Amino acid sequence: MGFKCGIVGLPNVGKSTLFNALTRTAAAQAANYPFCTIEPNTGDVGVPDPRMEAIAKIGKSAQIVPTRITFVDIAGLVRGASKGEGLGNQFLANIREVDAIVHVLRCFESTDVTHVEGRVDPVADAETVETELMIADLDSLERRIIPMRKKAAGGDRDAKLLLPVMEGALKLLQDGKPARLLEISHEEKPGFDALTLLTAKPVLYVCNVEEASAASGNAHSRRAEEMAKTQGARAVVISAAIEAEVAQLPDDEEHEFLESLGLHEPGLDRLIRAGYDLLGLITYFTCGPKETRAWTIVRGTKAPQAAGVIHSDFERGFIRAQTIAYDDFVALGGEAAAKEAGKARDEGKEYVVADGDILLFRFNT
Description:
This protein is of the alpha/beta class. It has helices spanning 15-23, 51-59, 89-96, 122-153, 157-174, 189-194, 219-231, 240-248, 251-260, 267-278, 303-310, 312-316, 326-332, 335-340, and strands at 4-8, 41-46, 63-65, 68-73, 100-106, 203-208, 234-238, 281-287, 291-298, 318-324, 345-347, 358-363. The strands form three sheets. Strands 2-4-1-5-6-7 form a six-stranded mixed beta sheet, with helices on both faces.
């Protein structure tokens, strides 16, 4: 089960520098000129989770395998992108393919790095990109809604269900608001998702600050955080320059370097976790002598479907899942003690897996 977060923003805000640090590679060219990223670069990143070390230690696992999330570095958008300006609709298509948007905002002053519009204003930058995405969505919906109205008028059942969703999204966009603010029912969600609207995707703002502001942020990042709050979105303050340095350090030097800057962990750890949370994802674990492994599922997933993430045969032949809560597993010292204490439960097909569950699936082959 793959989940993708697309890193977007105006040119020269630090997207590629952040991506390089995030994936600990130099796969994305970071240069001080617009459109240096032509093809979207993709990197899988392990989701940091300190619970894994505790589980692996108790389970005497030979290795730890974290769950993963994919980040896609998408070229910088500019005003008019929805009409083909800059590199235009090619990159709107790249955004359409991701599950969530990580929107990098320039929150640092520098005479060495040019801004495509000649100013540092993260709120205005956010509005520029959001406007382009809304214009693209408007164009898309306006083309599709007329034939949908005709189908609905003709009695088409699917069209009757989808049309109110399209009308609601269109009204929001015409009012200058993103489609993700539309309230939809459980029954309407599949149709809404099928519209693949750019502004329907959840957004995480990354406030890229200078090194001196990495621990506390600055006036620019505080404005961006306030904007995110009013939108019901999330924001993370990071210095891409610091993260790039951290990515090059040996593990034994990383902690000391971060502490010297007043940081307790890499900002990228917070970014990765925030992206994971943004998509409504949780983690369950499997543990044995060979490995402790984390598995990604959507919050609300039932046990058979969670088993299917490991292998489709597990879901098809699902019988039950031995379930131990993380806190019980750690407090009691493992599976055997949890069983003795009555904390290892056998759950059936209707069980909704909780974050941190340690599961052992029983299934028919």
